Amino acid sequence: MKSGFKLAATALLCGAIAVPTYAGHSWNNYHWAKPGLKVTVPIEWNLSSEWLPHFDNAVSDWNADPDIANVPTVIGVVPRKGSVNPRTCKPVGGRIEVCNSSYGRTGWLGIAQIWLSNGHISQAVTKLNDTYFNTAKYNTSDWRALVICQEIGHDFGLGHQDEDFANADLPLGGGLQTCMDYTNVPAGNGQPNDHDYEQLALIYSHPDSAAAAVASYGVSQAPGGDTPGEWGRAIHFTKDGRPDQFEQILGPGNRKITHVFWAIGEGPRGSKG
């Protein structure tokens, strides 16, 4: 059984629905304001043709009915074509922008960035680095499916179920491996699994007002950036000492958080202390 997964004996009420607390991989409880039954922020693609099938699959999977007793569907994002420059992938208030470009030898395959305002995610981006995905090592359906699924999952507030790249990825729930894992062998890891849906139901188990949702969209559109020097301070490290989460303070109540998926053997080494 993977680390990060615990079976709890309790249940959490989601409105009038009991949601089993099987999962335990919220990303610090970061979440969008949810005035209705689902998170319905637009998710806009700024992608080349190689990425579009993987984007469509990822959005369909995150929007899917979990088909798990007492676990509601809480993601209902609306995909549409975006209009931002993929190279900069500028954030837009109240939206998720998904972009691909050749961002250079940055060391990362993908990054997810969220901007926080008034206690909620106000805007988010996913960036996919074609400098690596255009090489033979990473130009595979499995790698593309894994990274785009995982970065979009982060944009909704999910963390990882397992953070050991060397662990074997065993099926967890529903007979599926999960895209919310680090792995060196991505075969079959391009989808969420039951525990991802359960965690989302827990994260979004409380309602928010429409006013709260609108209020969260006022954060400064600070650029995301492609390098650690643009992301702020490191706040989390992988098992082998690479910083994979960064925080930049933008002002009172406003922050930018960056989650990094490093290529195998790449990325800076830091200190966990």
Write structural notes for this entry.
17% of the residues lie in helices and 24% in strands. The chain is an alpha/beta fold and 273 residues long. It has an eight-stranded mixed beta sheet. It has a two-stranded antiparallel ribbon with strand order 1-2. Strand 8 and strand 9 form a beta hairpin. The longest helix is centred in the middle third of the chain and has 15 residues, at 141-155. It is globular. The two termini are 28 Å apart. The model is unreliable at 1-22 (pLDDT under 50).
Summarize, please.
The protein is built from five helices and ten strands; from the N terminus they run E-E-E-H-E-E-E-E-H-H-H-H-E-E-E.
Give the SSE layout.
Blueprint: E1 11-14, E2 17-20, E3 42-46, H1 52-63, E4 78-81, E5 96-101, E6 108-117, E7 120-129, H2 130-133, H3 141-155, H4 194-203, H5 210-215, E8 233-237, E9 243-251, E10 254-262
Parallel strand pairs: 3-4, 3-5, 5-7
Antiparallel strand pairs: 1-2, 6-7, 6-10, 8-9, 9-10
Helix pairs in contact: 1-3
Q: Count the helices. How many?
A: 5
Note the overall shape.
globular
Q: Indicate the percent of residues in helices.
A: 10-25%
Number of strand elements: 10
> What is the typical, i.e. mean, pLDDT?
85
Strand percentage, roughly? 15-25%
Could you tell me the radius of gyration in angstroms? 17 Å
Question: How would you describe this structure in keywords?
Answer:
273 residues, 5 helices, two-stranded antiparallel ribbon, eight-stranded mixed sheet, globular, alpha/beta
